[in-house]
Amino acid sequence: MSSDRKMKSLLAQRDSAISRLDDLKRVAENALTDNNVHANFRCRYKHIDVILENFESLHNEIISLSASAEGADIKPQLDLSSSFHDDYYYIQSVYENLFDKSTTEIENYCKVRLPKLELPTFDGDLRQWQTYSDVFDSLIHNNAALSNIDKYNYLISSLEGNALSIVKCTPVTSANYLIAYSALKRRYENKRLIAAAHWQTIERTKRINVVDNLSALRVLLDTFSENLAALENLKFPVKQWDFIVFSMLFDRLDSVTQTRFELEHGSHLTLHDYYETLFEFLEKQCNAWNNVALCNSSSKKTDIAKFKHSDRHISSKVGMSSSFLVGSSASTSACCRLCSNSHNIYTCPHFLNKSTKERYALVKSKKWCTNCLGDKHTASNCNSKSVCRQCSLQHHTLLHFGSESATESPTINTTNIKSSEVRDASVNLFASPDHTILLSTALVEVRDISGNYHILRALLDSASQSSFITKKCCETLKLISSPLSISIKGVGPITAKANQGVSCKLKPHGFDEPVLNVDFLIIPQICTNMPHVTIPRNQFDKFTNLQLADPYFNKSAPIDLLLGADIFAHVLKGTAIRGSSDEPVALDTEFGYVIMGKVNFVSNTVSSGSLNRSKLV
Q1: Are 591 and 571 in contact (CB under 8 A)?
Q2: Alpha-carbon span 515 to 501, nearest angstrom
């Protein structure tokens, strides 16, 4: 059949459908004024959806043929379709006004509106097929009120991914609906493949630490429960797999939970009841922890009080928190009495650029102590035991006049004062002119507020009585901090304060255990990059085959957190690989081997490792 003949045939059939709707419209108008026409209208109205489906099928084909012709104007066709639908909805409104008044009144009277049912989407995941298929069949496929073209549109709108690709190439027509629906059924209605998908989901579950990860336990239980229920719905003998399923779930628990279960239930387990007993045991654990968490969250003030009480307990026990890791920049709490910047007077550039005579005159005019440069007392009342490094007399090194008395006014150039003398408060923990000291670092995974883990770089400091985390990291992890007030003591008499603390969990990078609960003090910065310069890797060839806690320990990089002695003692395993006294040592820890000690590497930037004790942690 040529395209012209086909077009004529389609136009004739469509005109027939329009004519049938016109007849029904005429009867509907008569029914508005004549009750005797109501029965006739009811009978004819039953076929209105068939007329609509027939019209749309023919009209779509006509549009397709018209659009393929060059220069074709399809606007008349669109206007015709609009007019047809206007008549269709007019007839429906007449019918509802005449015969559905009672239903409308009941709906208006009822104040409760049920939620709209939405179709689930299906993307080809076999585990979701059974649920999707049952809902779609109930709401759409078996709904006699819907035409096939409507059902096809619903089918396409509810599919995604691989499932959509099966039907999207089939034209959207009434006749093709059953073809597309059957193709989808043939692809996914496979009992063996569906069962395999559910079983593989159970097999892919991993071992967890129940005590430290309640949310993971809930996910584990839900995974077993949902997938075993799906297998049972597929008529598989799940009850007969009791010991197999029990063993799979039991093996995914940590040793502490396994031991607790054995002590409570191990002696009276019955055949075919292993899995149910273990599942109920773990369910009780979840419920108990949920109840405790609910009680704790309802009293936030109590938690803060506990945190403060813990701080007071620590203070009463050790006096204050100490950390012997110090940084190179000046403390924010120090304020220069000469220029008002954040540094001490003996590191002030303006003070150091003056001559010895000018410095001495300034100290005397300000009535500062000539021994320690303090401004609260004079030299006669100074308790400092420090003496001049040049002459061992009772005055500050920066006020030394060579062979003359400190009270005289000689002219001597300040270049005679060595840089080591000027850095009176400097303590170099990391470098010296002939070697570098490497401190132990490790990559750890820290859990954020959502339960996700982030890789951070930690410094292990056995000399610190507290653990520290930077404020930036705390904000990245979105951890909830608690207010506190703890003094931090570094080298010498200088102290700083931490005003916030936080508790979180961390574990070795790449491993699920052990999970450590750590209380951190929050500070802006822990230290400068560690090590202060990158050290060539060939210095550590003998550690090549070790599993390192920080594979990049030799590269200069920032430190995100510091683990103090409370954690260091628990992660240390005891094994050490040592060389000579001039070589670094590898210590085995729960994080892997950490490298620390003296390295014979001379840096051209030794001063960058010279750290001022006024900058605590």
Answers
A1: yes
A2: 19
Q: 445 is written with which tokens?
A: 């995974």
β pairing state of 561-563 and 453-460 = parallel
CATH superfamily of 431-612: Acid Proteases (2.40.70.10)
Write the DSSP symbol of residue 122. B
CA distance 611 to 273: 65
The number of residues in the chain equals 617
Which pLDDT belongs to residue 543?
A: 83
Please answer whether residues 27 and 41 qualify as being in contact, where contact means their C-beta atoms are separated by less than 8 angstroms: yes
- Give me the torsion for CA of 599, 602, 607, 613, rounded to 10°: 20
What distance in Å separates the CA atoms of residue 76 and residue 81, rounded to the nearest whole number? Answer: 9
- Output DSSP code: residue 510: T
pLDDT tens for 255-275 read: 888 888 888 887 777 777 888
* C-alpha–C-alpha distance, residues 294 and 300, integer Å: 11
The one-letter amino acid at 291? N
Task: Give the span between the Cα atoms of 574 and 570, in whole angstroms.
Answer: 10
Kindly state the DSSP code that residue 115 receives in the 8-state scheme: P
pLDDT at 572: 85
Q: Where are the domains of the chain?
A: 3-109, 126-189, 194-297, 345-424, 431-612
Distance CA 571, CA 517 (A): 12
CA-closest candidate to residue 510, choices 557, 561, 550: 550
Taking a C-beta distance cutoff of 8 angstroms, is the pair 595, 576 a contact?
no
Give the torsion through C-alpha atoms of 78, 83, 86, 88, to 10 deg: -100
What's the per-residue H, E or C state across 183-211?
A: HHHHHHCCHHHHHHHHHHHHHCCCCCCCC
At 9 the pLDDT is 86
Q: What is the pairing mode between strands 572-577 and 585-589?
A: antiparallel
What are 292-296's contacts with CB under 8 Å, separation 24+? 293/214
With residue 222 as reference, give the H or E element that holds it.
helix 214-233
How many DSSP H helices and E strands does the chain contain? 20, 15
Q: Helices 75-99 and 48-68, interaxial angle, to 10°?
A: 170
Each residue's pLDDT tens digit, 438-453 = 899 999 999 988 888 9
The whole-number pLDDT of residue 102 equals: 45
Q: Mark 211-248 as b/e (b = at least 16 C-beta within 10 Å).
A: ebbbebbbebbebbeebbebbeeeebebeeebeebbee
Q: Which SS3 state, helix, strand or coil, does residue 575 take?
A: strand
Which residues make Cβ contacts (< 8 Å) with residue 216, sequence separation at least 6? Answer: 208, 209, 210, 451
